[in-house]
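Minutes, project check-in

Agenda point 3 was the complex the collaborators sent over. CS summarized: two entities, 445 residues total, and the question is how they sit relative to each other. Sequences were read into the notes so everyone works from the same version.
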Amino acid sequence: MNINLTIIGQLLAFSVFVWFTMRFVWPPLSDALETRRRKIAEGLAAAERGQNEQRLAEERAKEVIKQAKQQAAEIIAAAQKRSNDMVEESKTTAREEGDRIKEAAHADIEQEVNRAREQLRKQLAKLVVQGAEQILAKEIDAKTHGDLLKNLAKRL
Amino acid sequence: MASGNELPTMEEHIAHHLTNLTFGYHPETGLGFAMTSSEAAEMGFWAIHVDSMLWSIGLGILFILSFRAAARHVTAGVPGGWQNFVEWIMDFVDENVRGSFKHKNDMVAPLALTIFVWIFLLNLMDLVPVDLIPYLAYLAGIPYMKIVPTTDVNVTVGLALGVFILIIYYSLKIKGPVGFIKELTGIPFQTSITVIKPIFWVINFVLETINLIAKPISLALRLFGNLYAAEMIFILIGVMYSAGLVLGLVGGVLHVGWAIFHILVVPLQAFIFMVLTVVYIDMAYSEDH
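CS then shared the predicted structure for the full assembly.
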């Protein structure tokens, strides 16, 4: 066990190794570890944010769907109401139209009846005059009694 | 070896294992390698343990180059196998440093990493069969070859000396010379009586100086003692191989057992050295003990 210069040699070698490690080994590795740590932290934060956003989006989507459903229901209700109205309206229109047609028909019929009656009256008057002419023959002058017969025919 | 062609005795064998390859100036034979342990001792302080230096520097270079390789190709993305391993060690060291060192200093973590990995590698050499490399070296004409640098007290003292210099440096830097002297003289004994104060200062100074010097000495001797004792046991087990079949088999079993136990000692001692270094530097930083 001799104490000798080896101590100094070791001391120098030790210093050089520590210096080298401090200068060239530790900092790059340490930086890399730090960078990775930060990256992982950022990744985790981003994932967290993403999840949050997804949750918000889901909520928003739910809200939108709910609104859409509501709107659809409103539209359907309005359409139903409208169709009911239209049916009612057309019913009313049809009824009115029908009434009008009926009235026109009535008027036509009345006219026809009047016309027929007029014709009948004329024919009857002619027949009556003819009959009377035959019955009365000569005693009755057609010209003198013509006015009388015409009056009679009018009254029929 | 001194005994020439004869087989060495057990004492010679053990002594051979405990002697470093020493290069220095011998008063009689001049500059050169010491061929015997007494020659090595006679060279005095101005000699150097070539084997300790080469193995420790070689392993240190292995450490910095392999870690530098990871640092050069470092990526913040998915790390490769080697980078992953290096990061694992770094995380381990960094966690320990942050656990015991609360101040801002960019040097402490790299220092701790260097200490941990380097001492781990130095200790790891203990698991290489004790006779293998010294025998190969002997065949190559090299008289001595101790391959476990941490069983050389010079190596552990050299490391502890580095830590000691850092302790002094940071004590002076953080507290200033006056603060450092105050710390050395102001505690543990305190008094309000003016006359007794100087006496207490002297007592405190002696106690605190011992306390301060005990730090590197305990660091150095703990590491050295553990590894030296372990190496010694490996050597003794190695001796059993040459003592017949039965003892040889027992030696084999003991060897395996001790090696397994040693797997624990190797990182543990490196870890203790690292943690204590960090703690000592933290103490140099903090104002109160």
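Noted in discussion: Confidence is low (pLDDT under 50) at residues 1-5 of chain B.
Follow-up: revisit at the next meeting once the mutant set is ready.
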